[in-house]
Write a structure and sequence with these properties.
mainly alpha; about 45% helix
Length: about 60
Amino acid sequence: MNTKKLKELVLDLAIHGKLVPQDPNDEPASVLLERIRAEKERLVKEGKIKKSKKSATSDKGAYGK
């Protein structure tokens, strides 16, 4: 197997969650991202962090969700 095919195989396995055991109790990434967004918003309101130039409330991420 050549290097390119090996890289493709590893990437495919990683994308499908086959490289490490998966915990069915883990929350979906969308839920985690929403919790992070809410926490950042709370910290901005408390004045503990500054609002980023790209607003956390309008930032939809790389996939527009």
